[in-house]
Specification:
With 564 residues, the chain is α+β, with helices and mostly antiparallel strands. It is built from 23 helices and five strands. The chain has a five-stranded antiparallel β-sheet with strand order 1-2-5-4-3, with no helix packed on it. Helix 6 (209-237) packs across helix 10. The longest helix has 29 residues, at 209-237. The radius of gyration is 42 Å and the shape is globular. It starts with 10 loop residues before the first strand and ends in an 11-residue tail after the last helix. Keywords: Chloroplast, mRNA processing, mRNA splicing, Plastid, Repeat, Ribonucleoprotein, RNA-binding, Transit peptide. Its main location: plastid. It holds the Pfam family Ribonucleas_3_3. Residues 1-22 are annotated as: Disordered.
Length: 564
């Protein structure tokens, strides 16, 4: 039995101590004397009731043989009863608990977001000096599409294993490209660019950074090369058709659904999908991969050989047929075209004519009337000569030419060529500002639609080349986003309005009254006139004048707001 209950000298004192809190505490103190000679302290608590007991045994001072046992007990008020489920206080308390923010554990950032320390001066200098992008000074666009580091052993292994098959399929000589010509021949980089063209996102080598970036940059350039090539071809092949029909023809040939057919026709599908059967893949996976390789391939061909080789590969290697049934436009009501065309467009233009025309215009364009004379005659109808000497020709044209800096100073051996070029330029400018509402229903080609279609494609290619040469280490997706922001339709129209050229557009009376009531209707028209001016400058003076208009006259590289 516990000795505290056997002690005959037991005496207890019960008292209540005030508590500063709202709860009431009761402290019970008892001192017990015992005959033990040792002093011990016991402390225990019960799990049934919230009562804490502390027992301390110590001897009493008068009799040293006795022990004093002190027991302290603290009792806490029982917990309050739970509120009913429909109680407002309980609902408010649950709502407050739910509004408490969840404390998330911090995660480590991904490796691609961790900033690496900058290179020291020596390593940075070695990287720049050994970069292939700075090796070609005479071809800045070609050098900007090369990888920013030298190819490693894995890259060379792919080239030795598969490149001969690619060259044989495309009709190129099988010897290494660095043996072709001297240092001023861009075809010396053909092996490297063809290797990058086939390294799509699903390939094994795409995990390497310089390979992935090189493929994306070729992919970014190749899409605009194909668009411009087909725009020039179909504008000259069908001189009476509207741009809507031409767009349908282009989509029927190089739409993403038809690209796998061309890759398989050229026996290149085994290099794109070395481990899979292309016909058994999901359409989304098959088309996306083939599209990236197809566009990057023509970007590489354009950089090495130019536009004539693009036409040869399209129609000879891939076997595209512009008269095929799947690329014919939809049947629609056509306006009767009573105006005649140039005699050279009476028969259909073939791709061999385009190759010969491109080669001659590249070599002898300084002695010709225009940089692209047949393209100019396909977009500007001969009947435009009836507008020479009208009020717009004397009132508005001099102001427009002063803003655009026309005519450009060119040295021609025959003075009559300069005079004829300026006359045709005046007619082209008037066509650029001729809204379809004025004469289109009587004369379908007396409007800016065909020049607008050409100008849209050439400005896309010029801006893509500019971004590639300006940002050497940027991937193609970043360049695509920046390209889209620069050439948004609302910005193109804004550039024209900044120069106050939108006041010279020729409308019909009904459309003019409608546009006066709602000025926002003019915004698409301003964009169309801006693009038509680029198409005219490309046909008359070539790509260099398009660069002058975009970056010197209209300043297309203005700082634009970031997308929301």
């Amino acid at each position: 039995m516990n000795p505290c209950y056997q002690n005959p000298h037991l005496h207890s004192n019960v008292y209540t101590s005030p508590s500063p809190t709202t709860e009431s505490h009761f402290i019970t103190s008892m001192e017990l004397s015992s005959s033990f000679t040792l002093s011990r302290t016991f402390s225990f608590s019960s799990s049934l009731t919230p009562i804490a007991l502390q027992i301390q045994i110590f001897p009493k001072t008068p009799p040293p043989q006795l022990l004093s046992l002190r027991i302290s007990a603290v009792a806490i008020d029982p917990p309050q009863e739970e509120l009913p489920k429909n109680s407002p206080q309980r609902l408010l308390q649950e709502l407050a608990d739910r509004k408490r923010p969840y404390r998330r554990t911090p995660r480590t950032p991904p490796r691609n977001l961790i900033l690496t320390p900058p290179l020291d001066n020596k390593r940075l200098a070695n990287r720049l000096l050994n970069s292939p992008q700075l090796s070609l000074k005479s071809f800045p666009l070609l050098s900007s599409c090369l990888p920013f580091t030298q190819l490693n052993q894995g890259d060379m292994a792919w080239i030795e294993q598969h490149l001969l098959e690619v060259k044989q399929a495309l009709g190129y000589p099988l010897e290494p490209s660095h043996t072709l010509g001297d240092d001023n021949n861009p075809a010396r980089e053909l092996d490297t660019l063809l290797y990058l063209a086939f390294q799509h996102e699903s390939s094994q080598r795409s995990k390497v950074r310089h390979v992935r970036y090189g493929h994306s940059r070729l992919f970014f350039l190749g899409q605009y090369v194909l668009e411009l090539a087909f725009a020039e071809f179909f504008l000259q092949r069908y001189p009476r058709e509207s741009p809507a029909s031409i767009r349908e023809r282009v989509f029927g040939l190089i739409g993403k659904r038809n690209m796998p057919k061309w890759i398989k026709a050229s026996s290149l599908h085994n290099l794109v999908f070395p481990y899979d059967d292309m016909d058994k893949l999901v359409r989304k996976e098959r088309e996306a991969t083939v599209k990236s390789v197809f566009w990057a391939l023509f970007g590489a061909i354009y950089l090495c050989f130019g536009m004539p080789e693009v036409y040869r590969v399209l129609f000879e290697v891939f076997g595209m047929d512009p008269d095929a049934e799947e690329c014919q436009p939809k049947l629609r009501r056509q306006l009767e075209d009573i105006d005649h065309v140039s005699a050279e467009f009476e028969g259909k233009i073939s791709w061999q004519d385009m190759v010969a025309y491109k080669a001659c215009s590249t070599i002898f364009w300084h002695n010709a009337l225009f940089a692209h004379p047949r393209l100019f005659r396909a977009c500007v109808p001969p009947g435009m000569h009836r507008f020479r000497g009208n009020i717009w020709d004397y009132d508005c044209k001099p102001q427009i030419m002063r803003v655009l800096g026309y005519p450009l100073k060119m040295t021609d051996r025959i003075p009559e060529i300069t005079k004829a070029r300026n006359i045709e330029l005046d007619l082209g400018l008037q066509l650029c500002f001729l809204h379809p509402s004025k004469y289109k229903f009587d004369h379908p080609r007396f409007c800016y639609e065909r020049l607008e279609y050409l100008g849209q494609k050439i400005q896309d290619l010029v801006m893509a080349e500019r971004l590639l040469m300006k940002h050497l280490d940027a991937p193609g997706s970043w360049l695509q986003n920046k390209h889209r922001r620069f050439l948004m339709n609302k910005f193109c129209g804004r550039y024209l309005r900044y120069k106050n050229l939108h006041h010279f557009i020729i409308y019909s009376e009904e459309v003019q009254d409608a546009y006066q009531r709602s000025y926002r209707l003019k915004y698409p028209v301003n964009t169309a006139v801006q693009q038509a001016l680029h198409g005219l400058s490309y046909a008359v003076y070539g790509k260099r004048d398009v660069r002058r208009l975009m970056f010197e006259v209209f300043d297309f590289e203005q700082i634009q707001p970031e997308p929301m």
